[in-house]
Amino acid sequence: MIEFRGELSHNSKMHLIRLEKRTLLLSALIVDLIASIPIICLTIYFDWIFALAFFPLLILMLISIIPLNEKRCNLIFPTTIFIKDDIIICIGKEFKVSNQVDSVKKIIDYGDWYHIIFKFPHKSLRFLCQKDLLVEGSLANFEALFENKIVRVKL
User: Fold this and answer.
1) pTM here?
2) Taking each helix axis from N to C terminus, what angle separates 10-45 and 54-63, rounded to the nearest 10 degrees?
3) Do residues 103 and 68 make contact, with C-beta atoms less than 8 angstroms apart?
4) Cα–chain-centroid distance for residue 5?
5) Torsion sign across C-alpha atoms 39, 40, 43, 44
6) What pLDDT, in 10s, does the model give residues 60-76?
């Protein structure tokens, strides 16, 4: 068994926040683009009043860039990640996610932490394993388990 437990460092938290914001912004852009097509058609063919429908889309875009408060942070920061019996379980203050070890696409080694990336449809940004939070097992065991999937990145 390999287990990472504890509170993430500031750099790790900022990394997860950047990923979360990027994902929210991309999702909002996709929804906005899809919703814009009928609005533009209605505005061109019928009346300019349909252009007012762009305001909710603008609000959706603005919501995606609002800073995260503590309650929303509890939804993204893991407190415990452990690997046991070919299952990776990530637990936070307000969530629990599990995936199979077989569904790991790659692991990005950022130096101070590993970020586990899963294959579609098992995607989750939550699996961030900070190296100094390792309480059971060893980094050598972790790297041996995922030896062909680790990609090292220099920051």
Assistant:
1) 0.77
2) 170
3) no
4) 18
5) negative
6) 667 766 766 666 767 78
